[in-house]
Amino acid sequence: MSIKVIPFILFLGLFVLFASPIGTGIINLGNGTGMVVSALLMLITLFWERFTGFVGRCWEKLPGKVAICAAVLIAAVSIVLAVMISVSMAKEANDPPKDENTTVVVLGCKVKEGRPSLMLRRRLDAAYGYLSEHESVCAVVSGGKGSDESISEAQCMRDYLVGRGIAPERIFMEDKSVNTEENLRFSKKIIESNGLPQTVTLVTDNFHQYRAELIAESNGIKAYNISGKTSWYLLPTYCVREWFGVVYYKLFG
Q1: Residue 188 domain boundaries
Q2: What 3-state class would DSSP assign to 2?
Q3: Buried b (16+ CB within 10 A) or exposed e, 82-115
Q4: Residue 157's closest CA among 120, 194, 184?
Q5: 109 and 200 share a domain?
Q6: Residues 154 and 176 in one domain
Q7: Which residues 6+ apart lie within 8 Å of 182 measured at CB?
Q8: pLDDT, position 177
Q9: Which of 12, 55, 195, 202 sits CB 3.0–4.6 Å from 225 for a disulfide?
Q10: pLDDT in tens, 143-193
């Protein structure tokens, strides 16, 4: 067996893993980047001799050396950033509150035909588990109505939790937001106007908790978190997308 076969199979598997969410209609920067990088690594492995020959010829000239050094530097910085962000994401994936002096804020996600998507349902299941065990805690369900949604995400979330037995008076709706920053900013106003505990417990996906907490801090919100489960085959796609999201927020947020 050629020494190329093993890395080629690994990169092919990585490509398939990033491509698999497309079957469920998920196409974003995460799986797009993952597929491009995986395909590039497969091509480099397949044509290794040509690739090394090309690099060698480029290295013989100054512009080529500059380009190669720049590419190596960009790759190194990207890997370091990815590792650092991933560690922070893992640390913030689950940090439940120490007592019941908190308000649960469930961050919105896609609604399909009036029902929660798989990702939203898992967030709601996590929220339900906590709310059912801590009956003095109230929740704000946060999310507006997209152009392709029949009802607001907040309404869908409220209906789901009430349908599972959470008392309606414990659930407050924030149905105007269109992104995480607005989720938190608008939810904070509802919390303040209703005299709810201002320490927040965020409920979202594990990969999203780190950025959500950064945004919460920038809005003066002390936050704990409880995570919904993410399907294993979706995790790489959303983690890569989240790398870009965290970097963008750090630079421009």
Answers
A1: 103-231
A2: coil
A3: eeebbebbeebbebebeeeebbbbbbbbbbeeee
A4: 120
A5: yes
A6: yes
A7: 144, 176
A8: 97
A9: 202
A10: 999 988 999 999 999 999 999 999 999 999 999 999 999 999 999 999 999
Amino acid at 234: L
Amino acid at 236: P
Q: pTM of this prediction?
A: 0.90
239 domain-assigned? no
> Within this chain, do residues 198 and 84 fall inside the same structural domain, yes or no?
no
Task: Give me 138's structure tokens.
Answer: 């109230």
In a domain, 112, yes or no: yes
Predicted local confidence at residue 94, as pLDDT? 86
Contact 156, 133 (CB under 8 A): no
* Residues 212-234 pLDDT 10s: 999 999 999 999 999 999 999 99
**How far does CA 179 lie from the centroid of its chain?**
12
- Distance (Å, rounded) from C-alpha 202 to C-alpha 227? 8
- Dump pLDDT digits (tens) for 22-68: 998 899 999 999 999 999 999 999 999 999 999 999 999 999 999 99
Condensed to tens digits (0 to 9), the pLDDT of residues 61-96 reads 999 999 999 999 999 999 999 999 999 999 998 899
> Alpha helix (H) ranges present in the chain?
5-19, 29-46, 48-59, 62-91, 118-133, 153-163, 180-193, 209-218, 235-252
Q: CB under 8 Å to 111, separation ≥6 — which residues?
A: 117, 120, 146, 149, 150, 151, 152, 153, 156
Does 121 share its domain with 221?
Answer: yes
